[in-house]
Write a structure and sequence with these properties.
Layout: E1 10-14, H1 17-30, E2 33-37, E3 47-48, H2 51-58, E4 64-68, H3 71-78, E5 90-94, E6 100-105, H4 112-123, E7 126-128, H5 132-135, H6 141-147, E8 151-153, H7 157-166, E9 171-174, E10 190-192, E11 205-208, E12 220-223, E13 227-233, H8 239-253, E14 260-266, H9 273-282, E15 285-289, H10 291-295, H11 304-310, H12 316-324, E16 327-335, E17 338-344
Helix pairs in contact: 1-4, 2-3, 8-9
C-alpha cells in the first residue's frame, strides 16, 4: 500500500497480531500512521503484502519509522535505501513485547535516538542507543544542531568533531548569535571562538552561520533558520521562476539556502500557487501580511507600482522585515515579474 498522504511524520509497521497491538498504541501516542501485514487486514486498513516494497514507497515520505519486528527484517528493508546521515530518516525497531527500542539509523540528525527514548517511554521498555558519544556521555554536535533546527553542511566534519571529543580534546565553536545555546558553553568540551582570526586550523570545530561559505574550510558548517525572503510577484508567475529568482538572490549575496526559514508576501497573493511551490522547494514556511501592515514598515526602496496594485509601497522588503523581525541584508531586486528581498534575524527568538 502506498503512503496515504496524510502528512504525518511517523510511520509504524507491524507483522504480527501482538506487534500490531503494540504498534497501534505507538501510532496513537506518537501521532503516527500504522501499517500492518496483509494477514491482519481485519485489524487496520493500511495493509502491505511486502514490507520492503512498502518501505521503498514510505522511506522518504515519513521523517520517522518505527518497526515492531525482528531487527534483521528491518535491516534488509531499509539498508538499500540508506543514503547519508544528512538525509536519512530516523529508524527504530522494537520487539513485539516492547522491551527494547533500538535506534537503528540516523540516531542524531534524523532523531532516531530521541525516537527510541519516546518509544521506550510508551512501552515501559529500554531505549538501546549505540552511538559512541551517547554511550560515553559526550555531547553530539549533530544532535545539538538538530534540536535547535540548524542545517548541516560539510557533514563529513561531524566524525572529526566526535572523534576529538571521544579522545578528550576540546573542539571549537563559533556561534556569535547563540543559536546552539548554553550547551556549547561547557568548557570541558568546547572552546568559544569569537572571531575568524582566532580559529585554530589544527583543531576541529563548527561554525554557525547564514553564509554559504562563512567558515574555515576545515570547519563543520551549521546553518541557522534565520533568513526571511520577501517576494512580490505578478499574477500567475510560475513557481520555478520564483524559485530561480530567490536562489539567484541568495547566491549573489553568498547566503545559505538552508537558512531560509520563511517566504513572505502580501495577503493579496495568498492564492498564488507559485509561491506555495517555491516555499515547498525551499522547505520554508509561507506567510502573508495584510497590505496595511506592510505599508507601515519603513523600507529603503518604496515604489508606486505595488501601492497601486495591492495597496502598499513595498511587498518584498516590508514582508522580509516583518517576517524576520530583523534587518534587511538584501534590498529588493526585480526581474521576470518577481521581486525579492532578504532579511536576517539575529539569534533565536
Amino acid at each position: 500500500m502506498s503512503p496515504n498522504g496524510n502528512g504525518r511524520s511517523t510511520a509504524v509497521y507491524a507483522l504480527t497480531r501482538q506487534g500490531a497491538e503494540l504498534g497501534k498504541t505507538l501510532a496513537r501516542r506518537l501521532g503516527g500512521t500504522l501499517y500492518v501485514s496483509q494477514k491482519l487486514g481485519d485489524f487496520c486498513p493500511n495493509t502491505f503484502h511486502s514490507l520492503p516494497k512498502l518501505v521503498r514507497e514510505t522511506f522518504t515520505f515519513y521523517r520517522r519509522h518505527v518497526f515492531v519486528c525482528a531487527a534483521g527484517i528491518v535491516v534488509r528493508a531499509v539498508g538499500p535505501l540508506a543514503a547519508s546521515k544528512t538525509v536519512d530518516p530516523a529508524v527504530v525497531v522494537l520487539d513485539q513485547e516492547g522491551r527494547f527500542a533500538v535506534s537503528l539509523l540516523s540516531g542524531h540528525l534524523g532523531g532516531a535516538n530521541e525516537l527510541a527514548r519516546e518509544c521506550a517511554a510508551v512501552t515501559g521498555g529500554e531505549a538501546v542507543i549505540t552511538t559512541a558519544t551517547d554511550t560515553a556521555g559526550i555531547p553530539a554536535i549533530d544532535d545539538l544542531a538538530r534540536e535547535r533546527g540548524l542545517a548541516v553542511a560539510r557533514a563529513a566534519r561531524i566524525r572529526e568533531i566526535s572523534g576529538a571529543l571521544l579522545a578528550g580534546r576540546r573542539v571549537q565553536i563559533m556561534d556569535p548569535d547563540g543559536w546552539l545555546g548554553e550547551a556549547v558553553r561547557d568548557e570541558t568540551f568546547f572552546i568559544d571562538v569569537e572571531a575568524a582570526d582566532a580559529w585554530d586550523a589544527e583543531r576541529p570545530g563548527a561554525v554557525v552561520t547564514h553564509l554559504r561559505d562563512g567558515a574555515p574550510r576545515a570547519a563543520l558548517l551549521l546553518h541557522p533558520p534565520c533568513l526571511a525572503v520577501g517576494v512580490g510577484c505578478n499574477r500567475g508567475v510560475a513557481g520555478s521562476v520564483i524559485l530561480a529568482r530567490v536562489r539567484g538572490a541568495l547566491e549573489r549575496a553568498g547566503l545559505a539556502e538552508p537558512s531560509v526559514a520563511v517566504l513572505a508576501s502580501v495577503e493579496a497573493k495568498r492564492d498564488e500557487p507559485g509561491l506555495a511551490e517555491a516555499a515547498g522547494a525551499l522547505g520554508a514556511r509561507l506567510v502573508f501580511f495584510p497590505a496595511a501592515e506592510l505599508a507601515r514598515v519603513a523600507v529603503p526602496n518604496p515604489s508606486q507600482a505595488p501601492l497601486e496594485a495591492v495597496g502598499t509601497p513595498s511587498v518584498s522588503e516590508a514582508a522580509a522585515l516583518l517576517a524576520s523581525g530583523g534587518e534587511l541584508i538584501v534590498e529588493k531586486r526585480a526581474a521576470d515579474g518577481v521581486t525579492v528581498a532578504v532579511a536576517l534575524a539575529r539569534g533565536p527568538a
